[in-house]
Amino acid sequence: MTGKAVDVRSKILAWKAQLRAPFLTASGLPIILGTSVALALHGIVLWDVFFLAIVAGLCLHLGANSTNDYFDHTEEGSGSDDINVNLVRPFTGGSRMLQKGVLLPKEVLAGSLLFFMVGSLIGLYLVYSRGLFILVLGLIGAGSGFFYSAPPFRFVNRGIGELVIGLNFGVLTTFGGYYVQTLDFNPEPIFASIPLATLIAGILFINEFPDYNADKGAGKRTLVVRLGRKKASRFYAILMVFLYTYTLIAGFLQLISITSLITFSTLPIAVFATRHTLQNYESPQDISPANASAVVLHLLFGIGLSIAYVLDYFRLGFLWIMLFSVVFLLSSSIFVWCISKSNHNTG
């Protein structure tokens, strides 16, 4: 293999790591949920529109990821990712491609702008085919994603980064996934998005614990830095209580599908993540099982919400609801058992 071929291969592998594809569920799930709500309420799914919305959402997410890495790095090596020695891979500390020198800052910035451009072009087509309101949603989504870490706003430095991400990857994206299908202003997709908004904000929040010292040293005023780790661990517990309390009340009030209560089958993961955070908030490495649990909780809860609306559309009965509840409960319990065993063996 020639030197040029090796260089191309190394760049491809570097970009694979840079993009952090496993975390794209954060933008994909809310679009799927919004589409599921559209199916349940209107009985339609425009598959070409769904595909374009997914691709646009993923591109904007990839652009935001790269922008965040770019602005968390400085040439002097004083950025929050640069000075982070307590990172927990792959959840915190960025992709590390800039810190390793595998990618140049200008390459990461160019990649970020390219993804934003592709996402925006697809968005413009959706504006043309589905209406001007899509432009409003797209501008808010792209703008908040870019300025999450970019000047002059730098939402992450103002202690509202978690709120911005929750609204963006929860409320905005879910409603967008619904609206682009139906062109209908209905509050139900917004009500249905609140759990996902809470969960994605929770992922970001819990990932800030290992980065506490680096963020504080770089002047990055995340919510964990502002609260301190002890109070922040309690706040995470409050988030989890809110998540299930809201889902229960919203379900019984029929603000969301009552079938959404199948998501209570994910409680074992939430309990594990909360307890582990309360016990290990000061230890970057020991808290890592909670980081992983937060990601899996978001995934299973989001799938559960989406399935609930699909079940409503097909008018499937109690036995099907119980079947999915058991499947989610078993999946959650097996995950907790595996990660607890792994953590015990590591310890």
Features:
single chain; 347 residues; mainly alpha; Farnesyl Diphosphate Synthase; 13 helices; 71% helix
Taken together, the total number of domains comes to: 1
Biggest pleated sheet: none
Provide the structure class. Answer: mainly alpha
Q: How does CATH name the architecture?
A: Orthogonal Bundle
Q: Beta-strand level of the residues, as a percent range? A: under 5%
Q: CATH topology, anyone?
A: Farnesyl Diphosphate Synthase
Q: For this structure, what is the CATH class?
A: Mainly Alpha
- First-residue to last-residue Cα separation: 42 Å
List the helices and strands and how they pair.
Elements: H1 3-19, H2 25-42, H3 47-71, H4 105-130, H5 133-146, H6 161-182, H7 188-207, H8 212-217, H9 223-227, H10 229-252, H11 267-280, H12 288-314, H13 318-346
Structural commentary:
With 347 residues, this protein is mainly α. The chain has a single domain (24-346), classed as Farnesyl Diphosphate Synthase, CATH 1.10.600. 71% of the residues lie in helices and 0% in strands. It contains 13 helices and no strands. The longest helix is centred in the C-terminal third of the chain and has 29 residues, at 318-346. The N and C termini lie far apart (42 Å).
